[in-house]
Design brief:
about 500 residues, alpha/beta, about 25% strand, binds magnesium ion
Length: about 500
């Protein structure tokens, strides 16, 4: 099965000698790289011209906060220069004419639809044009052009039914690639339509999508993705790592929105301190939809919707928002935890660093990264690993666990500060990011902790269970992480002593 590769916003960025997206330079770069189809975004100026621009304003690309809808074509034409400016759609059509390539015109809004149709007619480019974007825009195009090649926008892992295709008669069903699984492709093909997906920049994922029958793959990395599909690259580890990073970034967007717009209804679960918000359930549903589409043979166990694993199949452990009490109380310190556990150990993981809601990922034997940068725990100083340093832990729900109070006094007696920040995921993973000498939780739960343990181990930190073994997925019991083996061991020793001093925990 071979899929066609679509150049996203032309061919731009570091893979295309720095051409800027949606410029004639990017269209030329895509043509030079042999693109069959070139996607561009269209917006309308105040005087009715269809120009190539993705965002509603010129801010991101041109450092100019004006909305393009409030600028005349003459004003837009003054920004940038030569091939490195905002072109008319008509100019892009002219560039593509006679090359054999097609232009895929994208609109996230119906406003430019009529002007875009007019530009295509004037250029007599109907046969080399496709259309995607908002359903309202597609209706305008379909009415004006009965033969147009239209992409039906689709944003669910559930495939469309025949009735969903009737009004637009689309050639393609166009979905975010993470929602496209083998069942989805088969269902769309059974309806007589083709599957288009966006935006795929991981070579192994693109090759996977082509293998399951996706017909059209949009990418920023035209050459790399075309080569990977042609070579039928197989790398499940790279695929899984790219997917968990995308899911963490998706969770981050939800969390950020919740901070500005509110968390919605806050419910409680086991007790008054055990919160769940609409953000938790929305993120878990989204993650489950993606994992179900991408890894249909795997199990999923999640904080909000449960699930079980007998250990036979690989299992994803998910906490959509770790630290919901913080979120519900306006404290900006929450995380996300997703780990794939295979044969009793985490092999791929993602969490969110609460600082900037930045994804932190790790793969067994390969390393750990924060926001694309490799991470390593800092070299520990000489001397007692805990004195003058910080240790973090979490409560049992809202309560002290057996030995907690004794640990607090034992650590403070030796000049070590104990902190309880409110997210078990961030507390353990924080050691990988240089936050404190060591951390522990009193009871391991894979939903909250498996991802963080893999990240600490891959960043060069130490992980210990209650017996002192370096298990990344113990049955239960406390887990300890340290910037060094000495720090993890020192915290385990301090914890054991604290348990001994807690009279209530005896027997
Ligand atoms: Mg687009």
């Amino acid at each position: 099965m071979s899929a066609r590769i679509v150049a996203h916003r032309g061919y731009h960025g570091s893979d295309a000698h720095g051409a800027r997206e949606n410029t004639l330079a990017a269209v030329d770069a895509a043509l030079a790289a042999g693109a069959e189809v070139i996607e561009v975004d269209v917006r309308l100026t105040s005087d009715g011209a269809a120009v190539l621009l993705h965002d509603p304003t010129l801010e991101r690309l041109w450092g100019d906060a004006r909305p393009v809808a409030e600028m005349t074509l003459a004003e837009v034409a003054e920004v940038g220069g030569g091939r490195h400016r905002i072109p008319l759609l008509a100019e892009a059509l002219e560039r593509v004419a006679g090359t054999g390539a097609a232009l895929l015109i994208d609109m996230d809004h119906p406003a430019p639809a009529a002007a875009a149709v007019e530009a295509v007619r004037t250029a007599r480019a109907e046969a080399h044009t496709e259309w995607c974007g908002s359903a309202d825009a597609m209706r305008i195009v379909r009415e004006a052009m009965p033969d147009a090649v239209i992409h039906l926008p689709w944003s669910s892992a559930e495939p469309p039914r025949a009735a969903d295709l009737e009004p637009l008669r689309p050639t393609f069903v166009n979905a975010p690639h993470l929602l496209v699984g083998a069942g989805f492709v088969a269902a769309v093909h059974a309806l007589g339509a083709r599957v288009a997906c966006w935006t795929v920049d991981e070579p192994a994922q693109a090759a996977h999508l082509a293998r399951i029958g996706a017909d059209s793959i949009t990418t920023n990395r035209l050459r790399a993705i075309r080569d990977a599909v042609a070579a039928d690259v197989r790398d499940e580890g790279a695929r899984a790592l790219a997917i968990v990073e995308s899911l963490a970034a998706h969770a981050a967007a939800h969390t950020r929105r919740a901070r500005t717009e509110g968390v919605g209804i806050v419910r409680t679960k086991r007790d008054a301190a055990d919160h769940v918000t609409e953000v938790d359930t929305a993120v878990e549903r989204d993650v489950r939809a993606v994992l179900g589409a991408q890894f249909p043979e795997h199990d999923i166990v999640g904080e909000e919707y449960g699930g079980t694993s007998d250990g036979a199949a690989p299992c994803w452990y998910l906490d959509p928002i770790d630290g919901t009490a913080n979120l519900a109380n306006g404290v900006p310190w929450t995380s996300f935890s997703l780990a794939l556990v295979t044969e009793g150990r985490p092999v791929v993981a993602a969490v969110l660093d609460p600082v900037g809601e930045t994804p932190v990922i790790a793969a067994e034997g390969a390393g750990a990264w924060r926001g694309g940068e490799r991470i390593a725990v800092p070299e520990p100083a000489d001397g007692d690993p805990l004195v003058g340093r910080m240790v973090t832990t979490e409560l049992a729900g809202a309560r002290a666990w057996p030995g907690f109070v004794e640990l607090l006094s034992g650590l403070s007696d030796r000049g070590c500060t104990l902190r309880v920040p409110g997210s078990g995921t961030a507390t353990l993973a924080g050691v990988a990011l240089g936050r404190g000498a060591a951390a522990m939780v009193h009871r391991y739960s894979p939903i909250d902790h498996a991802a963080a343990l893999l990240i600490v181990a891959e960043a060069g930190g130490a992980v210990r269970d209650e017996s002192g073994a370096s298990s990344l997925h113990p049955d239960s019991g406390p887990v300890f992480v340290g910037a060094s083996a000495a720090a993890a061991d020192a915290l385990l020793t301090e914890y054991s002593a604290a348990r001994g001093r807690d009279a209530s925990s005896v027997g």
